[in-house]
Design brief:
The chain is built from 9 helices and 3 strands; from the N terminus they run H-E-E-H-E-H-H-H-H-H-H-H. By secondary structure, it is mainly α.
Amino acid sequence: MTSVERDGLLQPITITPDGMLICGARRLAAIRRIGWKTVNVWVRSGLSTRLGQLLAERDDNLLHKPLTRTEEATLYSEVKAVMAEDAARRQEASRFTSNEENPRSDGAATVAAPSGGDTRKQAALLVTGRNAYTSLERINELQRLADDDAQPGDVRTRARAELEGIDEGGSITGAQQRIHAARALAELDALANDSAQPDGIRDSAASR
């Protein structure tokens, strides 16, 4: 309440077009106690079911056991993707109608819906309550490398080890630096192996 009275509502409450609250219950409770009669909101349709499921997953984990850093990053990636899909759908829909023509449209009600970097920021806030998308993006990079069969085995193993280290309290920045070094070494090894092929083998193959 003190924060809202001092700074205003920094992040709008999110609802569906029929008024169902998706996120912002504590903010709503605070402004009701302050006595506000109106409030800026995001009106979001299309994503409400999926986003609601993701946020319910977050809330269920928070009520019982805090999410690990890698679990936060996984949830962040999913929320960010859903928000990006919704933004693209709304942009496509805006080509044929406007909010003035259709007041029930699912565009943002009184503030701009997130796009680009804002999508990352808003997804991070929804998942962690902090503008921590840089760390989450770095963890996502490690997760992609750990699951990428096209990466050398040493790189995948290093990425998995770094993810375990992060969940145990290790440095995310340090993990990123080490995985970049591991990838650079893997590339050098691949180049060295290619250059080590004897010319005679290639010549004899050509002669055949």
